[in-house]
Design goal:
This protein is α+β, with helices and mostly antiparallel strands. It contains 17 helices and eleven strands. The chain has a four-stranded antiparallel beta sheet. Strand 3 and strand 4 form a beta hairpin.
């Protein structure tokens, strides 16, 4: 099978005809792009079929792509539709995804509508290269209230697709760019499986820093700074004392049981809002997470848990069981006759998830406590469990994570007390004959008695406690839990 590489550009002569390979500037460096062509097996009418691939920035890349295409063709790989554009393929791909969660389908659609199709939809699928995606993401990083003096065509297309009001363009975060690229990677991966392309052109795209924000605990120093400057944190966690103060403050709220359940057991918002009494066994102290109620395009939508790990059983501590019993008793006289939902409006209607978050924020504002998001109560639950000595694996399973790594990377915000306790316990295992002091240790010091060896004065916060809040055996309610229950 024959093949060759050549160079061409988009320059035109005086009549407007494209010069292509005839451009005299092609001999210079940096002008034009490299292409490759090869003979494919003849069609049914025995006519010659010649295919062209490109463009590539260098001759070496064009030759490598030519060798790969010839090899695949010789092995009988289907040629596919080599004229389909990336935009047309994305629409076909999305239409064929029938088992997507509503929120995932909404995100895919948004990424395609306002970024991928306007930015790269005109490029043929087989011609996509890593630098095409890099150009798109470079344009996304330039979005803002004002555009560069000479915006690229890609930037103009995606800003037009976003339809932002004048002066209100918000720059996408690096995390958003990564999510858009993840959508492209999934779609291109399917194109590879269908043998429409030989390789995924988005695999080697570089990005900026997209590390997940580390959760910070509202220590006294951070609280003082917040009161002085109003500084907030993207992911913030209350201490056990602060969470207890909130439960005391919210004890009379109609959704107190939800705030208690999420903070103690780490349910996601959609899991709590979608929980029904048929999935709650108060006698056994366990609830089953089987469905969720989330917002998609500002409308509540029922769906399955976030992943197969989200479909789980969650153990309850005795205090949370009593809170739910009291909540159910109150519902009998109000909404329980109209709904089987654990948490519903006073008229028995399902709650709007966004409205639940707004209600939580209003409560915090009135309480005077440092701000956290409703989702941050999952961080509180994880931190409380780890502070009580619960195994990371157990915490991960109760939160519905797919791996311990997710729990340790994102949710294990260690309070200062726990970190200090760990340091003391570590130091305590080192035997010493000389007591440590701030002064320099003399070279000739009499050996002290063994009883003088440093013990570290360890308080062992949570040491040896296998149970907290239903993770294991119940050590008994704290002072703030008792106050909340009696309140």
């Amino acid at each position: 099978m024959k093949g060759s590489t050549f160079k061409r550009c988009g320059c035109r002569d005086e009549s407007g005809k494209q010069l292509g390979v005839r451009c005299p500037k092609l001999s210079g460096r940096g002008h034009g792009s490299w292409w490759a062509r090869f003979d494919a097996p003849p069609a049914a009418d025995q006519k010659r079929t010649q295919l062209r691939i490109g463009p590539y920035p260098t001759k070496a890349e064009a030759e490598a792509a030519l060798a790969e295409s010839v090899d695949r063709t010789n092995k009988g790989a289907p040629l596919g539709d080599r004229t389909i554009t990336f935009g047309a393929y994305l629409r076909q791909w999305l239409a064929g995804r029938v088992a997507l969660r509503p929120s995932t389908a909404s995100n895919y659609t948004r990424h395609i509508d306002i970024y991928l199709e306007p930015g790269l939809g005109h490029v043929r699928l087989i011609d996509l290269r890593a630098f095409d995606f890099e150009e798109l993401y470079r344009a996304m990083r330039q979005i803002g209230p004002t555009l560069p003096a000479r915006p690229s065509q890609t930037l103009l297309r995606i800003t037009a697709a976003r339809k932002d009001p004048a002066g209100c363009r918000r720059k996408p975060s690096e995390a958003t760019i990564r999510r858009v690229h993840a959508t492209a990677l999934v779609a291109l991966g399917e194109a590879m499986r269908r043998e429409m392309i030989a390789r995924n052109p988005g695999q080697h795209v570089e990005f900026g820093n997209t590390d997940s924000p580390r959760a910070v605990v509202w220590t006294p120093e951070r609280v003082a700074e917040w009161k002085r400057t109003g500084k907030r944190h993207r992911v913030a966690v209350w201490t056990a004392a602060q969470y207890g103060q909130f439960l005391d403050f919210a004890a009379a709220d109609d959704l107190y049981a939800m705030w208690h359940l999420i903070g103690m057991r780490g349910l996601r918002r959609g899991e709590a809002v979608g929980l029904s009494w048929e999935d709650v066994d108060l006698d056994r102290g366990v609830i089953a997470i089987r469905r969720t109620l989330t917002n998609v395009n500002h409308r509540p939508v029922w769906g399955a848990p976030k992943s197969k790990y989200g479909d789980r059983l969650v153990s309850l501590d005795s205090g949370t069981v009593e809170v739910l019993r009291a909540h159910r008793a109150a519902q009998v006289h109000r909404a329980l006759r109209r709904t089987n939902l654990v948490f519903a409006s006073v008229t028995g209607e399902q709650l709007n998830p966004d409205g639940v978050s707004q209600r939580f924020e209003r409560l915090i504002a009135r309480s005077g406590l440092p701000p956290v998001r409703l989702h941050d109560l999952r961080h509180v639950a994880a931190t409380l469990g780890l502070s009580a000595g619960v195994a990371m694996k157990t915490v991960s399973e109760q939160l519905g994570h797919s791996s311990i790594k997710i729990t340790s990377d994102i949710y294990s915000s260690v309070t200062a007390e726990v970190a200090h306790d760990a340091a003391e316990r570590t130091a305590a295992i080192v035997p010493r004959n000389i007591k440590a002091s701030n002064s320099s240790v003399p070279t000739s010091c009499p050996r002290s008695d063994k009883s003088d060896r440093a013990t570290g004065g360890v308080s062992h916060i949570g040491a040896g406690q296998e149970g907290w809040g239903g993770w294991g055996s119940n050590p008994g309610p704290t002072d703030y839990e008792s106050a909340a229950l009696t309140g």
